[in-house]
Design brief:
The structure holds 2 protein chains of 2 kinds. By secondary structure, chain A is α+β, with helices and mostly antiparallel strands. Chain A contains 4 helices and 12 strands; from the N terminus they run ααββββββαββββββα. Chain A has one domain: CheA-289, Domain 4 (OB fold (Dihydrolipoamide Acetyltransferase, E2P), Beta Barrel), CATH 2.40.50. In chain A, the strands form 2 sheets. In chain A, strands 9-1-2-12-11-10 form a 6-stranded mixed sheet, with no helix packed on it. In chain A, strands 3-7-8-6-5-4 form a 6-stranded mixed sheet. Helices cover 72% and strands 10% of the residues of chain B. The two termini of chain B are 30 Å apart. Classes of the chains: A alpha+beta, B alpha+beta. The interface between A and B is medium-sized, with 25 and 26 residues.
Chain lengths: 172, 654
Amino acid sequence: MENQTLDNRTILNRLENRNDADRNVVVDEQRIRKYLVFNVGERPYALEAEAVREISSNNEFYYVPFVPPYVRGYANRHGQPYTIFDLQMLFENVVLDSKTLLILSMENDQAALLISDVLEILKVAESEVHRLTSEDDSSRYFANSLNLKGKEVFVLNVHTLLERLERDLERS
Amino acid sequence: MADRQKRSSLVRSLSVWSSVPVIVVLAVMGGITVVVMSINIDTFVEQSASQSIGLMEKVIRTEVDGAVVNYLRATAEKSRSLMEMYFQRVARDEMTRDEAWAAITGILLDPGYGRIGETGYMAGVSSTGILVIHPASPGADASKYDFMQQAMAMKNGYLEYEWQNVNEEHPRMKAGYLSYFEPWDVMVWASSYKSEFFSLVDRDALSRTVADIVVGQGGYVLVTDETGAILAGEDQFLVATELPDEGTTSFERKSTDGHFRVDIREVTDLGWNIIVVSPLTTYDTILLTLQIIIGASLVLAALLLYAFIRILLSRRLNPVKEMRVLADLVTTGDLTKRITLSSNDEIGDIGRLFNGIIGEFAGLLIKVKSVNAVLGTAIQNLSTSAQEVASTSNEQAAAVKEVLSTMEDADRVSRDILLKVEEVARIAGSTKTNVEKGFELIKTSLGKMEEIRSTNSDTITGIKTLGERIDSIWEIVNIINGIADQTKIIAFNAELEAAAAGDAGKNFQIVAGEIRRLADGTVNSTNEIKTKINEIQHASDKLIVASEDGTQRIAEGWQVSSNIRGIFEEVLNSSEISSKSADEITRSTKMQVSSFEQIFTTLKQISESIDSFVESTSYTNEVSDRLTGIADSFEQQVAVYTVEEAAAPAESGT
């Protein structure tokens, strides 16, 4: 019955009878952060919800020459071009077969991540967000890690991705 | 003698029939000559009479017209002279003009002076046509009449015109003479009907003229008046008293006086008749003489022609006479004589053929004699052979009777075989019927299996159709799943927007989260549906496999039944062949029995024939004996004829 379509009245009733935890969340808003958890291939990743403008499916890609292989081209979103990053290509050197994009919200750049599926929006207390201490080359693309149902999920650092792109472009 | 008379009749009849056409032709020509001559004579006599009548008419008219003109002229001229005399007396004042006019009028109108004929009179007419002196109508104007206008133009001279008095039925020709006296302007007019002047004609002179006209030999001319009284001429044969009815123009008459033709013509204005009598006796004599000459010539010609043809035929038929004599000799048996021939015509050819026939006949007799001798010997041999044949035929008759007995036994055996074979044919027919029934059952079984196979095939098709329907459900589920995914993404976006909105978006975030969960539930449901569909498809596939396996079993069963049907067909064919063969054997056996019967019958006939042949052989013996007697008799008959044996064949061709 959980999957049954809910009417507005039911939803309002739920809002009125919401539990204390929810109320606490609202009360302790300063200590709670929201993350969007998604899959790239079989791997789950997370991004802060504020860093994501929207999720877009069934997009058309426009190929761009002389760019690194993890840049799959750009997509037209509301008249604006967005650079498409293929994280699977970047991390595993395997092309990801998907057309779902996470449109990132940045002031100076317009970029999008190619993902397989969105899992959920996760509210996490700051205390449960773990800073990564590893100094290896790959971990610099992740800012933090989260625990999702006993499984560790890395939070992506978008800026390092953009820096990598700039470097690669300069190199080429 | 009778034959001789017949031959003489032949010559006579040939002579007569040869002469008759010539005589007939000559007679016809003679008849035509007589007829033509008669027609010519009639034409000549008619023309001669017509000429005489025309001449006589002219004579009469000349006589009458001359007398009339002279009499009227004398009368008119005399009266004019009298009028001139009174005119002179007036000139000498011996009397007045009126006295003179009264005197002359009295004289002219006096019947004693002025009457002309019976009704004629004297008159005075002025130059303007006024009747100044007239016994009936003095002072009348007659200028309107044509004759008066003619008289006014002439004033002097003779004229004729038609005039009808009031008391008369027809107009009559009237004659008048004018003599004009100018001092008093008077035309003295003397006129009368012309017929009233006949008394003035000089009959003696007319008679003399008539007597001078000759008509043939002995003919004459008569002139009669309306009453038939003779005016001129002498009527020798008194024809004027026997004139036929009015209108007849000619007739012929025969009397003791002779034969003559009478032609009559009426002179219409005078009322007289001119009669011409033409004698025909002379012409009759000529025609009779001609007929006698032609008849005598015909008789003479016929006699001469008959004599000539008869002599000619007698000479030409002389060889026939010889042939007749020779035929008489042949009838007595003498074949040694021949005809002596000299002519090369058809009769000569016939004579030569006759000689040839006698020669051939003589040769034939010689051959007959020799053949007769041979024939006698042959008849003897025939008699001997016939006796031998009779003996042999008796032996054959006995042998055939034995065969006949054997065939009777064989016929009985054949009939027994026929009964057995008919029983076999009946059993074969029954077997064929049973096999046909079994064959029909197999065919029915095959039909039912075919129906099962068809039904199974329909089931498989239905299951496949169901699979296709499930595939379409699968597509719908995918569509629902896609919609759920989209909804989920939209819900995420809503949540993101709500998160970005801070406090204001909290409630909206809840709503978006519910929508996302609903989308997740939808995706889960569709996944369950997919699982169920997969199970159904799996079960359907298994069902199809099972059904196809069943189809395979059915096909195998159908194949087995088909094989059984094939075997039954062979059995059926075999039973049909057996039945047909049994029928054929029955038929053949029947034919054999029938043939046996025929052979049996034929053998009986042969036996009877041999019996009759034996009888015939004995009859042949009798006949050969008779033939021997006939040959002897024939030899005696041939011996009657005398033949030159060496010469006969040689002369046959001459």
